[in-house]
Amino acid sequence: MSWWMRLLAPLWHPTPRTARRVAGAVVVLLGLVVVTGAVVRLTGSGLGCPTWPKCTETDVHSGVTFHGLIEFGNRVLTIGVFLVGILLVALVTWRMRRRDLYLYVGLLAAGYLGEAVVGGLSVLTRLDPLVVGLHFVLAIGLLWVGVVLWRRIGCQDVPPRPVVGVEMRWLGRGLLACSWVVIVLGILVTGTGPHAGSRVDNRLPFDRRDISQLHSDSVLLMVGAVAVTILLLRLTRAPEPVRRRARILMAVMLAQGAVGFIQYFTGLPSWLVGVHVAGATAFWVATLLLTLEMWQRPALVEPAPAPVAEQIPGALQTA
């Protein structure tokens, strides 16, 4: 049997553990796309490829240049690796006959196409800050879909069972909405400041100090809301996994807040802004996981492993 058949076998006959690993890999790739997109912006490489869908008028790359390689590398990661990840998730869900997950796979594919189009528009509009910000918003939305898919793919297709009271569930939804506001305000701050991504004078028409203060206020509000959530989860004797998710979210927020204040008082060094973007991604995922942890589904039972020869079709075995 060929080596590629042995690699295909676990995907052709996936177990719940394999399925979660594949979905988890897609979530990691989504996070990498966000971070590498920030690198493109912070190095001023957004126009390293001056046109779209090609990199130049005549080629798919701009040659061995610093900015060109950075932007082209981000395009390769987005188009190549992430596309392979979506195809693997589609294969796993199809082989598991999880029709309840087809919608999420479809949303990932549609979001991928949307990201490609918005990325092209950001180049064609010479890195308009609003278009660049929409690029980040779509990436955050894709992360939402990816995290939900990762949680559900290893669980049974049954309605979720709430593990906390209705008031706590509404509080979780409120935290999710508040976190979205925090992220959007952070996007506006970046579009107003020196790291909007454009190498020309193209910034959002906000006062930098005022928009930064509004963003900081939203973060402080979120910290207070999470602190109240931790206290209420303890008083209501919520399950430990939910309480642990809340503590993790608080730790991420405190670290993110520290980075934000440091970058503000040190003149916004680009590398620290990159750390802040990575922290914002972690903050969003932590908020999602806390909210989703308030509902539970029974886990799928791991079947006994089948012989490798039985895990792929006979046509492939003889190929």
Helix and strand string, N-terminal first? HHHHHEHHHHEH
The largest sheet, given as strand count, sense and whether it forms a barrel, is: 2 strands, antiparallel
What is the CA-CA span between the terminal residues? 9 Å
Structural class: mainly alpha
Secondary structure layout:
Elements: H1 3-12, H2 16-42, H3 66-95, H4 102-124, H5 129-152, E1 161-162, H6 166-192, H7 208-235, H8 240-265, H9 270-292, E2 295-296, H10 314-317
Helix pairs in contact: 2-3, 2-5, 2-9, 3-4, 4-5, 5-6, 5-9, 6-7, 6-9, 7-8, 8-9
Keywords for this entry:
70% helix, single chain, 319 residues, 2 strands, mainly alpha, 2 domains, 10 helices, flat
Give your account of this protein's structure.
The chain has 319 residues and is an all-alpha fold. It has two domains: 1-157, no CATH class; 161-298, no CATH class. Helix content is 70%, strand content 1%. It has helices at 3-12, 16-42, 66-95, 102-124, 129-152, 166-192, 208-235, 240-265, 270-292, 314-317; strands spanning 161-162, 295-296. Strands 1-2 form a two-stranded antiparallel sheet.
